[in-house]
């Protein structure tokens, strides 16, 4: 009899022990689930914050918003507004960025840089390089690129033609492998967006920095935006020409992938100006 009692007590103790362990395990599971839910909510909040947003701006017309959206590739990665002339970045921060990245600290320097992008930019190098890469056999390209280098050097322009050509070749191939970039009969490659898209952003930053009036900034933006929208038949092709210009300039695959990710967001997010403005 005592044996059965002892066995019963041991069994009861064991059951209580198991129940306590299960309760602790369940409590821990709830903690993990709650933490995971909180992390997912934070990720969703961050995703919403990172989405390219556009809202109705009573000051800007539909066309004005389209023109501003022509510079969206870079401005999206910076997390700045895509729907207004103002970028909503503090003036001191904008001025610091202009000095650091563009060596711009005066109105005259800003206007000179904008004019340089509008009249020459990097597309003057891209066009002849692209022609060599797409029309000549591989064995003839080095000589042609060297001659092109000499032609620019004779004009006082010490541009790294061979490096640019290598960057274009590698990055173009990379983008074709990871995406459907540069497809379709109406696809153009001229790097115009790389120049005029940045010029549009400089106009916005110039306004935020106090170097340009609203009227001056919008006058430039309208001019550059009209040229870009006239030159390309889709936002996709417009954005691709920013990518290829960036690729030529830097050759950095990792940065290019980040930029391409933003490009895809702009083409797919419901709140993107490239989606909203194309449908109106």
Order of helices and strands: HHHHHHHHHHHHH
As a percent range, the share of strand residues is: under 5%
How many beta-strand segments? 0
Provide the low-confidence segments as ranges: 14-19, 21-37, 46-55
| Principal-axis shape | globular
Number of domains: 2
Structural class by helix and strand composition: mainly alpha
- What percent of the residues sit in helical stretches (DSSP H or I)? over 70%
SS element count, helices: 13
Radius of gyration: 28 Å
Span between N and C termini? Answer: 88 Å
Q: What would your notes on this structure say?
A:
By secondary structure, the chain is an all-alpha fold. The protein has 2 domains: 1-50; 62-276, no CATH class. It is 73% helix and 0% strand. Helix 2 (62-69) crosses helix 10 (214-231), helix 6 (123-135) runs antiparallel to helix 7 (141-154) and helix 9 (192-209) packs across helix 11. It starts with a helix and ends with a helix. Mean pLDDT is 86; it is low at 14-19, 21-37 and 46-55.
Element layout with pairings:
Elements: H1 2-50, H2 62-69, H3 72-77, H4 91-102, H5 107-119, H6 123-135, H7 141-154, H8 161-178, H9 192-209, H10 214-231, H11 235-250, H12 253-268, H13 273-276
Helix pairs in contact: 2-10, 4-9, 5-9, 6-7, 6-8, 8-11, 9-10, 9-11, 11-12
